[in-house]
Write a structure and sequence with these properties.
alpha/beta, Rossmann fold, 8 helices, 21% strand, disordered N terminus
C-alpha cells in the first residue's frame, strides 16, 4: 500500500491526468484503496477498474469440508484470506460446533465474526509466516485455502508438532481483459496472485 501511495505522489500531476489501475476482483474490493487515494490525487486523475484476478470455487473435498469442520477433530481452523473465509461460510451451519478460528488479518476475521463465528487468534503481522509461527500450541489444524497457496503454513506447523489437514477450496484465475489497448501510469496489486495473473495476461 505504501508503495502505491509513493508512486502516486511522485506522478507529475501538473503535467497530465494520471491513470491508475485498480486490480482487485471487483469495484467493492477496490473501495478501501479508492477512498485512500482520492484525497491525494488531482480532480483530473482517473481510477480505472482492471480486475486481474477472479475466484473459482473448487469441487467439494472428500470428506467434505462441512464434515471436517464438525468432526471435533481439530484444535484450530486456519483462515488466511478473505476469499477463504467467504468460501468457508458456504459450508457452515450456524448451529453446528466448529473449531477455534485463527485468521491471518483483521479484515479476514471480520468476515467470520460477522457470521457470529469467534476468532481466537490473530498474528502480530498479517502474514502466513507469522500465523504459523505464533499460533498457540496445537496438535491438529484444518486449513481450507487457495490451491495456489504455498506450503509454508503446513510445513511450519508440522515442524512444531501440529498435524495439518489442507483442503484446497478455491483457486485464482485471470479474467478476460477488454480489447482495445490503452495505457495507465500506475498499476496497483493487492496480492501476489494479482501480480502473477497480470504478468500472464501481458
Amino acid at each position: 500500500m505504501m508503495h502505491v501511495l509513493i508512486a502516486c505522489l511522485l506522478l507529475p500531476t501538473s503535467a497530465f491526468s494520471p491513470k491508475i489501475a485498480l486490480t482487485r476482483e471487483s469495484p467493492a474490493a477496490n473501495t478501501p484503496l479508492t477512498d485512500l487515494l482520492t484525497p491525494l490525487l488531482p480532480p483530473s486523475a482517473a481510477l480505472l477498474q482492471l480486475p486481474c484476478i477472479s475466484f473459482t470455487t473448487l469441487p467439494p473435498s472428500n470428506p467434505p469440508l462441512a464434515t471436517l469442520l464438525t468432526s471435533g477433530s481439530y484444535d484450530y481452523c486456519l483462515i488466511t484470506s478473505k476469499e477463504a473465509a467467504r468460501v468457508l461460510l458456504e459450508h457452515i451451519s450456524p448451529s453446528v460446533r466448529v473449531p477455534q478460528f485463527a485468521a491471518v488479518s483483521l479484515a479476514t476475521s471480520l468476515i467470520l465474526t460477522a457470521a457470529n463465528l469467534t476468532v481466537s487468534f490473530l498474528p502480530s503481522k498479517s502474514t502466513g509466516h507469522h500465523l504459523a509461527t505464533e499460533l498457540p500450541p496445537a496438535t491438529t489444524a484444518l486449513y481450507p485455502c487457495s490451491a495456489l497457496a504455498s506450503t509454508e503454513i503446513e510445513t511450519t506447523l508440522k515442524a512444531r508438532g501440529c498435524s495439518v489437514t489442507r483442503i484446497d477450496t478455491y483457486t485464482t484465475t485471470t479474467p478476460a481483459w477488454p480489447s482495445g489497448g490503452g495505457t495507465v501510469d500506475v498499476v496497483t496489486f493487492g496480492s501476489p496472485s494479482a501480480g502473477s495473473c497480470a504478468a500472464e495476461a501481458i
